[in-house]
Design goal:
8 strands; alpha/beta; globular; 5 helices
Length: 206
């Protein structure tokens, strides 16, 4: 028996829903985005590819920071926009963090040695991966991040709320989505109320 009724996560996660082909989440702050990503890190194994897309400044690097922390990587993760790629070692698995935002043509990604980066010994996360969708392997996880206003008028503003959609590609990732639902349990919390104060950090990385 599935742990949740089909199509929905438990009611105490009002910002999360699922239709088995996607998992829709809502984050109210950069810290919550990091914790959300950290909670999903047990899903990842060497050879996996995660493509991050969505609005500029929606928190893609923040999400990668959470994944890296969950993998036990001790280094501070920063945006690789200008150097295109960073490799992080020292965690449970090695992580390659790419950013193809500055590349104008997919051929530039190929010339960069993209195929070599898809090393089965690494987890590969590609910021703006939706821009190079044809180059992604058949099996990958797409994560789309966008600005969004909470339904609660006293909740966090559009500046801090992020709508995060996880979409599996391939049978392997489709099978993992129910596990993803379980992993985010307790992380995606109700939007803060008016008494929570202005302490929520504002602004996320690219």
């Amino acid at each position: 028996m599935p742990p949740f009724p089909p199509g929905h996560l438990p009611g105490r996660f009002p910002g999360a829903s699922s239709n088995h082909r996607s998992l829709e989440l809502e984050s109210g702050s950069p810290e919550q985005t990091r914790r959300l990503a950290m909670s999903l890190s047990p899903l990842l194994h060497p050879g996996d590819v995660v493509a991050l897309g969505g609005d500029l400044g929606a928190g893609k690097t923040t999400f990668v920071q959470g994944l890296a922390a969950g993998l036990g990587i001790p280094d501070r993760v920063t945006s690789p926009t200008f150097i295109l790629m960073r490799e992080y070692l020292g965690g449970r698995y090695p992580l390659i963090h790419m950013d193809v935002y500055r590349l104008e043509r997919m051929q530039e990604v190929v010339d960069l040695g993209y195929d070599e980066f898809l090393d089965p010994g690494h987890i590969v996360v590609v910021e703006w991966g939706d821009m190079v969708e044809p180059l992604l392997p058949k099996e990958h996880l797409s994560i789309h991040m966008r600005y969004g206003a909470a339904g609660d008028p006293f909740g966090p503003s559009r500046d801090t709320v992020r709508q995060i959609s996880l979409r599996p590609h391939g049978a392997l990732w489709e099978k993992r989505m129910q596990t993803a639902q379980v992993l985010v349990e307790g992380v995606v919390s109700p939007s803060p109320g008016p008494d929570d104060g202005p302490d929520h950090p504002r602004g996320e990385g690219r």
